[in-house]
Write a structure and sequence with these properties.
This protein is of the alpha/beta class. Helices cover 34% and strands 23% of the residues. The protein has a single domain, classed as Rossmann fold (3-Layer(aba) Sandwich). It starts with 23 loop residues before the first helix and ends with a strand.
């Protein structure tokens, strides 16, 4: 996926030191192949791992074209409030069109993970899938501080990001799709970074997906 040209098609994108993906049209094709569409198994898995409950206020950081965000709204229900942000205007435009087609209550806006435009203690859950590997380490630190700020006391963060599949054939196929450098990202080092950001009950482990691991943490009461 990441090998496709990444040139912006609009001029109103926000400036960030992280990588911003602008190819929204191709993005959905490749994510669908990986089971990441709206309400598909991978999206449902991430929502389950995040323990999103009816009525939750949820933020999806780096939401892309909104597949995970829209699935989170399904779990949060009509009483929940779900927001998705992404630095790419193209991704947000596509996400908004999906929300309109589905009559979804999700609110999508262009925004930066390192400068969240929300008050303190706004969300019960913050979720992120295949985003954190796009950030340099100093930006990860800022992002985790901002996420902790907007979480309510007792709120939960769930990060799902790349690990290298153990199956040689799957590893080769996935690496060809997303680029071998992406499969070498060290998701496991995110746990100590969350602890340094003062999250508690930090855990890391595999998921039902062969190419994703999850890291979770809780904002102390």
């Amino acid at each position: 996926m990441h090998r496709i040209r990444n040139e912006p098609r609009t001029k109103d994108g926000l400036q960030t030191a992280g990588i911003t993906l602008h190819w929204a049209g191709q993005y959905d094709f490749f994510t669908a192949l990986m089971g990441m569409g709206v309400n598909r198994p991978n999206s449902r898995m991430v929502v389950e791992l995040a323990q999103i409950q009816p009525g939750d206020a949820v933020l999806d950081v780096g939401c892309g074209t909104g597949n995970l965000t829209l699935t989170a709204q399904t779990a949060a229900g009509p009483g929940g409030r779900v927001h998705g942000i992404d630095a790419s205007p193209e991704m947000i435009e596509t996400a908004k069109k999906k929300a309109a087609r589905l009559n979804s209550l999700v609110v999508f806006n262009v925004g930066l993970i390192e400068q969240l435009a929300f008050p303190d203690a706004t969300f019960d859950k913050v979720i992120s899938r295949l985003v954190i590997h796009h950030l340099p380490d100093d930006l990860k630190v800022k992002a985790f501080d901002e996420i902790r700020r907007v979480l309510k006391p007792g709120g939960r963060i769930l990060i799902a990001d790349f690990i290298q599949p153990r199956n040689h054939v799957l590893n080769h196929i996935t690496g060809a799709m997303v680029g071998s450098h992406m499969m070498q990202t060290d998701t496991w080092k995110l746990a100590p970074m969350l602890e340094e950001a003062c999250f508690t009950a930090v855990t890391a482990g595999p998921t039902r997906s062969a190419f994703l691991a999850s890291v979770t943490g809780t904002k102390s009461q």
